[in-house]
Amino acid sequence: MELVSDGPATSREDRFTDLAQVVADPMRRYLVRRTDTEMAQDVLADAFLVVWRRLDDVPADDPIPWCIGVARGCLANARRAVRRQQRLVQRLSQQPRDGSEPVLDDTDLHEALGRLSGQDRELVELWAWEQLAPQEIAVVLGVTPNAVRIRLHRARTKLAELLEGRHGDGGAGQEQVKERRRR
Amino acid sequence: MSDETEDRLRRRMRAADPARQATPSAPSWIPDLVEATMSTDRGTEPTSRPRRWAPVLAAAALLAVVGGGAYALLDDEGGSNPRATPVATTTTLALPGGGGGVSSSSCLQFDVGFLRDMPIALSGTATEVGSDTVTLEVDRWYQGGDADVVRLANFDPANSSLDGFVFEQGERYLISASDDGTVSFCGFSGPWTESLAGAFDEAFGS
B55: distance to nearest CA of chain A, Å? Predict the structure, then answer.
């Protein structure tokens, strides 16, 4: 699929420049939400290169989810590279940058998100932060919209329950609920 | 979940959005990034290329992808077994007929354009080398997958040494494979080297 243009045939450079106006900030925000600033910048550059080289594959009508999918893949690769480096060079004295997620100001939410499975967390974040519809999330993850709908519903329910303290350990959970109400 | 609960949840998530504050300082950052991207790539822009002959493949190895399933694993989950995945699927792919050794005279000259056509490409380190299987821990997917672990099955043990390279535990390899999972040799896979990695970068877009 080629990008729609309403003038004479536009060059590849022009198409890419136009596309960048649409997708660059969503891609940047996707990465900033999931890793540290330095890795986000590096991965954004990697992802942009992939989009440039695969420009003809970008869906014309809804390019953002597809490009987020590219950023997602590049982020996974960057994390793998870091893990591999960590295994090769065991710098136990330093705290190596591992590209992990930023800590949220809302610490209860941060903790609750941390207790979700990786899949559930990813779904909830794409829904709430990227504000993608189920069929768009499906494009990012490479699965069916139906699978997204079912899984997303369950993930949101789980997160809500964690935030209400229902997943605490028996009595402690109840204590948590009371504690929250008192605040 | 009621709409109200859903809205509340979404609002809470959005209030905690890490991207809320982090805005780039330079207002021209998008055109700058566009220009940097295109100049990185100048000279290697893909052009249409004539269809090539299929390379002679050593038919002995096929690629089975372990784990991954519908969603990618971003981190190792369930620390005790890093290979455990929520959805474990093993894809077994067709084994083409053949066997027998591959001599270098039956290989095509190495060509990045042909490498680019490979639907599966990755680099990984051999964690286990058995008599007829090799397990690779993936450190990078160039194309065609997202599992953390990949297994190669060699159904023709008599030909475990191909193109002068064998799999050794702890060594790193670049692997490309076709749609049916046949690992390509003839220089399109091999021990990791700067130059082969450079070719993979060029073929698959870093």
Answer: 24
From residue B128, give the alpha-carbon distance in Å to each of B20, B133, B159.
45, 8, 18
A79 touches chain B (CB under 8 A): yes
pTM of the predicted model as reported, rounded to 2 decimal places:
0.57
Reported as type and span, the H/E element at residue B137 is strand B133-143
A117–B86 C-beta distance less than 8 A: yes
With beta carbons less than 8 A apart as the criterion, state whether A12 and B38 touch.
Answer: no
Any idea what DSSP says for residue B106? G
Q: Map tokens 């672990």 to a residue.
A: B149
ipTM > 0.85 for the complex? no
The two structure tokens encoding residue A168:
């605490």
What single string gives the DSSP state of each residue in A63-117? HHHHHHHHHHHHHHHHHHHHHHHHHHS---SS-----PPPPPSSHHHHHHHHHS-
B-chain residues within 8 Å CB-CB of A127? 10
Low-confidence ranges of chain A (pLDDT < 70): 1-9, 88-98, 166-183
B9–A159 C-beta distance less than 8 A: yes
Residues of A within 8 A of B5 (CB-CB) are: 160
Q: Is the pLDDT of residue B72 over 90?
A: no
Tokens of B171: 């060594």
A154 in B contact zone (CB under 8 Å): no
At B13, the pLDDT band (50, 70, 90 cuts) reads very high
Which of B67, B158, B127 has its CA nearest to residue A84? B127
